[in-house]
Amino acid sequence: MLGERAEMTTYRMIARLIPAVTGLAVMTAHASVTLPRVLDDHMVLQRDIPVPIWGTAAPGENVTVMFRDQTRKTSVGSDGRWMVKLGAMQAGDPATLTVAGANAITLNDVVVGEVWVGSGQSNMDTDIGEYPMDDVLQAAAKQEHPNLRLYRSDQGNGWTRASPKAFRFSAQLFYFGMLLQKELGVPVGVMEGAVRGSPSANWISDET
């Protein structure tokens, strides 16, 4: 459904790896607590597994993360990095996630549900607007989908709720996420990480 030579994997498989990805997770350490862009308003956290929340701050600073009925505390390491893990959660209503240290950061409209990552080439990267003859897709894209959240790594506006005003996004992932959200009845987040013209071997296992 998501195209040949494209690989889709759930957040479950990459959650423990994301903090180690330098380009995504590491920021220059400052006295103020900072978060990577992937942790933002409207984001979706994966249900039923521990969820990492991470960032940077001054070495030795105490950081507290609060979400729903959970409070997690940690101290910043000598490298300026910190991470806590929220306990496994069930899907539910949007809530506020707060990170507090020398400063406080509030993330609004955070939900828990299913998070999927789509990777691949142009077949994954081709956006909704490039399928003008697909009446079903175009009709769906004109509707509001408050429980479908979109994230694209090369866009500057973080997570967004799917709507006619949403930024350019993968048609494959949008439609997949919309159908999955309707089927499961929980919030769904789809994250696009695709590069047009890249070698297909980069996106599949050695065995495949």
Concise synopsis of the structure shown:
With 208 residues, this protein is an alpha/beta fold. Helix content is 16%, strand content 35%. The strands form 2 sheets. Strands 1, 2, 4, 5, 7, 8, 9, 10 and 11 form a 9-stranded mixed beta sheet that branches.
How would the blueprint of this fold be written?
Blueprint: E1 7-10, H1 11-14, H2 22-25, E2 44-46, E3 51-56, E4 62-67, E5 70-75, E6 81-86, E7 95-100, E8 104-120, H3 122-125, H4 135-141, E9 145-152, E10 160-162, H5 171-184, E11 188-194
Parallel strand pairs: 2-8, 8-11, 9-11
Antiparallel strand pairs: 1-8, 3-6, 4-5, 4-7, 7-8, 9-10
What characteristics describe this protein?
208 residues, alpha/beta, Immunoglobulin-like, Rossmann fold, 2 domains, 9-stranded mixed beta sheet, two-stranded antiparallel ribbon, 5 helices, 16% helix, disordered N terminus
Describe the structure.
The radius of gyration is 18 Å and the shape is globular. The strands form two sheets. Strands 1, 2, 4, 5, 7, 8, 9, 10 and 11 form a nine-stranded mixed beta sheet that branches. A two-stranded antiparallel sheet has the order 3-6. The protein is 16% helix and 35% strand. It has 208 residues and is an alpha/beta fold. It has two domains: 19-111, Immunoglobulin-like; 112-203, 3-Layer(aba) Sandwich (Rossmann fold). Strand 7 (95-100) and strand 8 form a beta hairpin.
